[in-house]
Amino acid sequence: MKKLELEEIILAIEQEINHNLHVFSDSSIEYGRMGGAIFYYYAFDYFKNDSFFSKGEFLIEKSIDYISNQIFNNPSLKYKGDSVGFMLSSFGKGLLFIQNNFEFRYDFSSYCMELNEVLYDITKQTINKKDHDYFCGTFSTGYYFLNHYKYNKDEFSKSILNLIVKAVIKDKIILNEEEVYWNSPTFNNSVYLGLSHGAAMIINFLSKVIEFNIYVGDKKELEDVLFKAITFLIRRERNYLDGYFPHTFIQDEKASITQLSMCYGDLGVLYAISNALRLLEIENFDERINELLISTSKRRLNKNYTQDSSILYGCSGLYYLYKDLYNRTNNEIYLESYLYWFECIFKFRDSQKKNLAGFQFEYEKFNEADKSATFSFYWGIGGIGITLMKEGLATLPDLNELLLIG
Q: With 70 as the cut, is the pLDDT of residue 74 above it?
């Protein structure tokens, strides 16, 4: 796509977001004002338009107001898996990202210090619930502390991350001598496999802890648990093209084609396993995992399984996953894949459609309860716009630390 055409689409997205700022009802990145602020800071760096910088600052101020005055008294939880801890930590991750990835003179350390104490208490509560979900469990705060430690190397974050890791190890469910997994208390104790709620999510988090040398406990025990979780996932593989791994651990689940997205499906599972094996320098499963990754990278757009252009469920998320795999491995197959999925973003756009910059979302007709989703970072055109800017200008900050992959 030509640069001028790309910029016209980005500016159309900006107009839609600007006209609908009132629909953002919280301060999260994923579907709130912080995600809008990050969009505008990207837009400022991309277009060098001072009005975009002002809008970013406005949304930061509104986010801080909401956190200070409303969230503790009247929290607005949109979905079953949401939590106050998730919204607070999402807000905090946004502050850390803006302060450390753009050339602005911000210092949000005083806000982060206040967040640290609150999120520490919330982390202890989720540990007691034995819930390690990304959206409502220990990882809802854990990824904030992981990012805080990345930038500050502070002992406070390190100590909390160690509490989380010890709880994860303690709460594992032993399937047999070689396999462990975890259930999800918030979701009826279901056992998920993917990157948003399941074993792949836990493998991904533990891999980051090892990568940053955070754990002060028995490192051999941690690596053993990680390897057994990897083994659990690998043994769930089915001989079914485009549906290698089931969504949940159900003994008699019928094999079928599965979703292809960042949130659910084969790619997130294989991504987490591949990175963990590389980190642990274990070759046992390497060949098979690479075969499955290459097979999955050959999948092409099917709107039944990749539902839109968004980060969470759509083409933008696949773009980020394959781009990260390419950066880690230098394998040309992943280069082809991330460029392919970038182009697929536009296959969910109708230039004649008057709203949402022409982008189409399957859930639009079911979206009366939460109008922010279509404009948001995770589900909507906000995240799509950032993806377009990132591919259009390579010097813009990498987004990974704000995604499920961390």
A: no
Q: 353: how many CB neighbours lie within 10 A of its CB?
A: 11
DSSP string, 100-112: HHSS-----HHHH
Q: Do the bridges between strand 179-181 and strand 173-176 make them parallel or antiparallel, or are there none, so unpaired?
A: antiparallel
Name residues whose C-beta falls within 8 Å of residue 351's C-beta, 6 or more positions apart in sequence: 358
Residue 140: both structure tokens together: 């809802």
pTM: 0.95
pLDDT at residue 79 in the model = 41
- What's the CA gap between 246 and 193, in Å, rounded? 7
Which amino acid, one-letter code, is at 398? Answer: D
pLDDT digits (tens, 9 = 90+) for 185-239: 988 999 999 998 899 999 999 999 999 999 999 999 999 999 999 999 999 999 9
Q: Which sign, positive or negative, has the C-alpha torsion 133, 126, 374, 377?
A: negative
Round the average pLDDT of the chain to a whole number and report it: 94
Q: What are phi and psi of 248, to 5 degrees?
A: -130, 165
315 is in an annotated binding site: no
Q: How many CB atoms lie within 10 A of CB 371?
A: 14
